Structures are given as C-alpha cells and as structure tokens.
C-alpha cells in the first residue's frame, strides 16, 4: 500500500533515522525519567485514574506494535482487550486465582482469538484490514451481549476480585494495586520493545515498507503479519485484563467500537511508530476524559473528534514525533517524512 | 519467538511479586464521614451527553438544587445541614467511568450520597463502590432488579422504577383490559430477557396467553420482519421490550405495517415521556406503557412541574421528580438525625413511609431497600386530545404500591 | 409463501439503504482511494436535515428527496476542499482516520443541537399503509424504498456507462493508474465525486427518515455493516457495492425470520466466507486490494 512513498531510506529503516538513536546516555536518561514518572504517578494523580493510564498505555503500545511497525491499522482491537477482560474476570471470579495469573490467562485467550481473526484479516492489508478487523470486533460485541450466562450481558461481570496472596492492601486499595500491576505493564512494554528491536522486528518493518521486496527476499509476509497480530493482541489482552481487575468489573464497553477508536486516537496522538508516544498519548487522553467527565461539558466527541482531525492534518507524527523531530532539527539531523510507518523504529522505548 | 514469550512471562510474574512487596507506603485512607463539618455533599452522577441526557441528565441536577432550596426554606434557622453542596459528573453511560467517578466523588469530593446513575452496568458498579466506601447511593435512572436482589447492599436504595414493575404493571393491566392474546418481541440482552420473563409471568397470572417470544439483535434498526412474524399469529397485543432508538424504529415500522388497523395493539415495556416528545404524539397514539410518575397527574405534581418549567424551560420526566424526592428525603433524614453519618441515615430510611410529590404512598422497604410507591398505566393521547406541550399521557389506572413491585418473598436480597 | 415474499420485500428495503450508501462509498473510494468513515454520519445527517427542514420550513418528503442530497453534496464539497484534499498524497489510512474524527465530531454536534431522543418525521400519506396485490399485502413504503433506490442505482449506472463524466469516474475507479496514464485529468473530478458520494449517503438518510429512528447515533452501527457490505462486494466495484448491499439486506431479513439470534452475526460470517474464498470481494479485482 505504501509503494508510492517508498524511498531507499525507508527500506533501510532503523539505520538512517535521527532522533535519540545511538545516544545511549540520552536513552538511559529517558528510560529513567519514564520509570520515575511511572512510580510517582499514583501520588500525583488519583490512583484508579493512574491505573487507567497505565493500562491504556500498554494497550496503545500493543496497537502501535501493529500499526507503527507492521503498517497494519486494526480498528477492532477492543476485541482482544475486551475478550481478555472477560476471561480475566471469569478466572478471578470462578477460580479465585491471583490476579497476575488471571490477567495472563486473559492475554492467552486474546491471543487464541486473534489467531483466526488474524489469519482472515491479513489476507487484505491497508484500509481493508482496518474495516475487516472492525467488523469482526463488532461480531464479538454481538456475541458477548447475547451470551448472558457467561458474560452477564449488559450488566457485565460484577465483583471481579483482585486476589493477591491475601495481601489486603493490594486487594482493596487502588493505590497499592497500581504498584502490584505496574510490573506486568512494564514487562509488556519491555516485550514490545524487544520485539521491535529483534531481527523479527526488522523483517516486520521491511514487510511494512515494501512487502513485494520482502516477499522476493523469501520472507513469508503473511506469517509475519499474523505473528505480530497475535503478539499485539496478547499485549492488548494483558492491558484489558488489568483494566478489568482495576475496576472490579467487566462491561460491554470493553468490546465496543468506541474502545477500538479510543486506542487508535491515543496511538495517533502520541505518534505512530514511537512506543513512547503511545504512553504519552494514553496519559493525555485518559486525563482529558477524566477532566471532561467532571467539567459539565457534554460534548466529549467534539473534543476527541477535533483532536483527531487536528493531529491528522497538522501533527501527523504526533506529540512524541513532533518533539523528537524538533530535537533532531536543532541538532541538524534529517527528519523523516511524515507518513505511517515512516517514524523511526529506533526511536521506541 | 516462543522462547522469548516464555522468558517474558516468567519476568512478568516474578517482578510482579517483587515489586508488589515493596509498595507498602502510601497516602492514608480517607476519613469516615461523621458529621463532616456540617457540610453535606450531594453528587448527581448520570448521563449528561448520551441517550439518557433528556430523561435525566443536567436537569436532574436542577431538580436536586430545587430540593436543597425547599429544604432550607422549610427549616429556616433550624437547618442541620447549613452548608449543602450539589456536585455532578457525567458518566457518559460508560460503567468504567461511572466506577472511577464514584470513587472520586466519595473519596475526593467528600460526597455523602450519590444519586441517579442510569445504565444497569454503571449502577451496579456504583453500588459496589457505595458498599466498599460505606456511603449512600440512591439509584433512580437504572432499571435492573439486580440492585434489590443478588447485588443488594446496605448502602444502596432503588428509588423510582425497575424492570419488574414495568412488566408487571403493563402486562397485568393490559391483559385485564382485554388484551389476552400476546406476542412478545424483545432485544436479546440482559434487560430484554428479564423483561420478557417478568412480562410472561404478569400476563399469565392475569389469565392471558403468550404465543411466541421473538428475540431480536441489539442494536437493530429493522424490525419489519419480526413484526410480520408476530402479526402472522394474529394476536391482539404485541408487547415490545425495545427501548430508546430501537423502540422508535419498531414503532415507526409498526405504524408502517398498519397493524393497529388489524386490531393488534402495541404495549411497550420501557418508554419515557421524552420518547413521546421526540417522536411526536401521533406516532405513539394509543400505546400502553407503565409510568412511574406523570407531571400532569394531579395539582401537586402540576404545581411542582410549573416550578421545574421555570427553572429549566422544560417539563419534568419521572426521573427529574425522583431525583428531587430522593435528595429531599435524604436531607429530611439528616435533619431528623442531626448527622450525615451513612449508617444512621440508613437506619432512618429503613421501613420509613413517605409521601411527597414523587412518592405517593411510598415506603422504603427495610428488607431489600426497594422504594415502593403507587405507579400508573398510561396511554398515549391522540394528537387532538393534547392541550399543551408535554401533555401526552392519559393515566388509565393507578396501581397501588404493594401490587406494583416485586413482592418481598420473591426477592433474593439478603442484607444480613 | 406470503410470509416469505414479505421477508424478501423487507430485506430488499433494508438492503436499499445499504446499497445506496455503499454505492457512494465505492465511488469515493474509486476516485480518491479514500474510505470515508464519516459515511454513516452523513447518512445520519441526511435524515436529520430532512427532519429539521420539515420542522422549520415545512419542506415535505418529496422535495426533501432532492433538496437534502443537494445540501449534502455541498457539505461534501466543503469537507473535501477543507480536509480530505490536504491528505490526498499520503497513505489513505490518514484520510480514514480523519473521517473517523469527523464522524465523532458530527455525531456530537448533532447531539448537542438536537438532543438525543430523536426527531419526529411524518411520512407522505400516499406511501402509508399496505399495497394489495390480490391476496398479497405489501407495506407500501418499503416497496417504494426498494423501487426508488433501484431506480437511483440504475440512474447512477447509466451515468457511469453512458456519459463522458461517468466513463472517467468508472475508469479511474477500476483502473486508476491507466486512466491517469492516458492523460485524463482525474483531479478535476475528485471534489464533485466526493460530494456525489456524500449525497448518496444523504439520500439513504432521507429515505430512512420516515421509517427509522432519527437520532445522532443512527449511523454508528450502520457504518460497520456498510464496511462489511463493501468488503463482500469488493471495494473497487460499483456493481459489487449495490449487489452486496441488497444481498446483505436479504441475508439480514431471512436471518431475522428464521434464525433471529444469529441475524447480525450472519452478516459477518458471510464476510469471513467471502474473504476466504475471494479476498478481493465478489466483484472486486485482486489489483484493487
């Protein structure tokens, strides 16, 4: 789909990009700042909201793994976030397992669901991929809504416990739960970073930039795409499971198209193809929605819709991309073109 | 890849254990709402932007403010609650937002009570928070009977209506009035399934029979086929459990099919005056439905509705009146007890008999915290019978409180 | 038999909305390479504008069938000039995202302006009631919707095959590189074509006004089914959009009649099967994928 924008540079992605790449001290400093912010968050922000930010950040990272590095826009990622939320909830309610186990089982379930959907969806790329994933997610919505015995229908699954080896603070206080869940979130992000920087990740970028060439080089493009789709679904699932545990219930909202749209918004706002951007986008959007809910302003779609339009028209590289490009410009480095997937894969975490 | 996955999994679990053990410092818990410095905070948490905006929404906040003004005026210099704050938040019909906002209202804004919360999943989430924080919650906007059954708790009350009442009143009364042969069309999700069950019980108890129970997808904009199927059995009533936009779709397509001319009446499970207002009286003419309160029912209601019109520019729905009533009765309880301590107020409420503009022959049942009161079967007027704006309903019969709601022996609630 | 005939008519009527809107979607995609996520919102706008015009100016259904699409055409022209054209050179996903943002914006603006409970609309007396054909009784309005949209689709088809404008549009829809190579100025047609596609969605909206709930959200699930329709028909194909539109309407109606619980899911299953058997859609060509 991007054949018209292909340049030799794009194919060489990862080797010619500017930004913070190669400056190890800067990167470590950034990582340290990120960690401090993550640790300080629930002191500054209301803890349940801080947990929302963390979960949405991982969800956006998962989507960006797919969008930024494989060039595939999934508009139905709520299917994985939501299905994992339900499985996590059911495991926690029915089996009473510790919450990290419940969330991981949820993630596994999301991956199992992603396999058939992925196999079907990667038969098409570009716009088709977006529409097909959206349609499949909507199908799941109908199933979840009707399958009341298991999902609770529109009432949702209520009373999802956060079992944690009898440590009451974690089980009842959102503040402590945040710290108990944070390692899982960070591990998920670290995993995404590993994938991006592995040989697998480089092939992925090649399939994004020039699928025909990747195919000619002997790579099975579809298999790479399905694999990254399933991995992305697993991370989205982990995030969805933790979100459900944090709130203590699962509802239809989790599998709705609005949820799919929100994570796309977060990713685009933060900057496609920059894992840091996904995190910043989550912080911005979750806080914004939280503020709007108490503000008395009744047009949340007007705000989010405008953000979408403005970002797509004027800041296609998102908040993170814009900032790093500015930094790069000041250093006299070359700035990449603003197109999906053109952002620096090395700029990630 | 698999190896990496496994490693990742191991790291995740291990670090979860380690880090969680470290996190033992944090801010102290919130204070228990004793007299809370004589300040009473009433929070309205509802849908201020979505489908329930007109039904309840911002005007419910206005109704609560009317209650505060009335309370202050009535007790003058003797008021216990000298400082009353009314705050509100928009849950956008999203249960996760409702959940977070409820915690925030209780913890941060020192809310003593949360009112309203339409959408069942959101209401259930808020009820859970009320129980955890030991603060009051009076539900008005949501219709799920779960709140006074399996999911009931000491701090949650259900004020205005529920699905059992709607189905019971409409099913029984329409059958008694001669509509004995039914077909039911219901949306296939929790609300619709509950309504179908309650309707069936009510109709059969009143001596009617129900042919098919037709489940439809939700949401859905095409009901012609379902109506054709239902009408083919030649019933004299089609009962529909659709709500909101789906209901409007169905009613438009019922009118289009010309079923009224074939002698097939339409009974609606869940309908609000705002639905009639938006679609016009003509479309709904003759439709039977249960109503929890009607502004033009008697002088008392009408006088209050006139004041409400002055404040907001529109006529009140039952939800507005119920929010007013809940806030007023809460403040009266605070006045009587001299405290806003939640447990004391619960004690004051339980078993209390109340008559106000909304609750006629009202009683707060101690056993399941369901508030029962007289309700009505309404029929939508024909266009030429309408005398003024919002004058849409004719009250066919009044159903006494104890006959309208789920009897105590059927409730599975155990407040311990 | 009578029941089956009724289901068929109802399915075709439901399919008419999909067919008209999908046709607009397909034409826009063909010439601009853009999938318009706001198409559902434009369908909603068609119905809302019809209802508002009726309320404010007393404009009835028949003139609305012309006036509203014209207004929507102008709206489309403005949107194309202001927003869509700025992203024309980039990956089409950006316009997909842009129009998604626009649809959120439009839906909430309408909600704020006209509330959420829906707007009233009266249908013309002529189209009320039942049409009697011997022992068969068919709902007049649905028969009208089907025939009218069939007429419009046929008209569009004639426009595409018999006029020079149509030739250019069709050529660029189905073989866009070749058309450019032959020196045809496709660019000049981009804006009116976008407006025309939006007008078709608006027309579907006007047709829906007397028959469906007119609310700000009426396009939200409509657009998702519409995506399934164009995937089934093949995005690059004008015929495919129309045929798949009616097909999905029929599948929905028969599903509702014979397997109500599955009636929504069945559409997506059909889509999955088409992707398996013919990834480019029933009428699509692989190169348009």
Explained architecture:
The complex is a heterotrimer of chains A (349), B (416) and C (289). Chain A has 349 residues and is an all-alpha fold. Chain A has a single domain (46-347), classed as ABC transporter involved in vitamin B12 uptake, BtuC, CATH 1.10.3470. Chain A is built from 16 helices and no strands. The two termini of chain A are 27 Å apart. With 416 residues, chain B is of the alpha/beta class. Chain B has two domains: 36-161 and 296-373, Response regulator (Rossmann fold, 3-Layer(aba) Sandwich); 164-291, Response regulator (Rossmann fold), CATH 3.40.50.2300. Chain B has helices at residues 2-22, 57-75, 95-107, 120-133, 163-176, 190-205, 224-232, 244-257, 273-279, 281-284, 299-312, 318-337, 342-349, 401-404, and strands at 39-46, 83-90, 113-116, 136-139, 156-158, 181-187, 209-216, 237-240, 265-268, 288-291, 353-354, 362-364, 371-372, 375-380, 393-399. In chain B, the strands form three sheets. Chain B has a seven-stranded mixed β-sheet with strand order 7-6-8-9-10-14-15, sandwiched between helices. In chain B, helix 4 links the parallel strand 3 and strand 4 (136-139). Chain B is globular. The termini of chain B are far apart. Chain C is an all-alpha fold and 289 residues long. Chain C has one domain (18-226). In chain C, strand 1 (130-133) and strand 2 form a beta hairpin. In chain C, helix 1 (2-32) crosses helix 6, helix 3 runs antiparallel to helix 8 (187-208) and helix 5 (140-162) packs across helix 6 (164-174). The mean pLDDT of chain C is 88. The chains are: A mainly alpha (349), B alpha/beta (416), C mainly alpha (289). At the B-C interface, strand 7, helix 7, helix 8 and helix 9 of B face helix 1 and helix 10 of C.
**Largest interface (CB < 8 Å):** A-B, 64 and 54 residues
Shape, per Cα inertia axes of chain C: globular
How many DSSP E strands of chain A?
Answer: 0
Number of domains of chain C: 1
